[in-house]
Amino acid sequence: MNIEELRDYCLSKPGATEGLPFGEETLVFKVGEKIFLLVGLTEGNRFNAKCDPERAIILREQYEEIVPGYHMNKKHWNTVYMNGRLNFKQLHEIIDHSYELIFNNLPKNKQDEIGG
């Protein structure tokens, strides 16, 4: 998966938006004004995604391409390298999980507004 494919997939999520709130080097994807994924534009081979803490540990043990989140809360965020053995389906599952964690924690009226 390259950065354009990653961007297209993230923006296909209901209510997903993109922006550069931390400067021109980090592209951020949000739902309901909450971040679900960050990707460095200079280092486009990896992204940070939110993850359930127990699942994060399992994924890190299974895949060397998944490590504790760079510059993030390492309990809740993973850095995922896209140039390894993870396939599109696995990368999509990681993105989906991150999106769903954020979406499901939004207030009910915000979820209804987004319609995911």
TrEMBL record:
Signal peptide range in chain numbering: none
Determine the domain of life of the protein's source.
Answer: Bacteria
Which Pfam families does the UniProt record give? YjbR
Q: Could you identify this protein by its name?
A: MmcQ-like protein
What high-level taxonomic lineage is stated for the organism?
Answer: Bacteria, Pseudomonadati, Bacteroidota, Sphingobacteriia, Sphingobacteriales
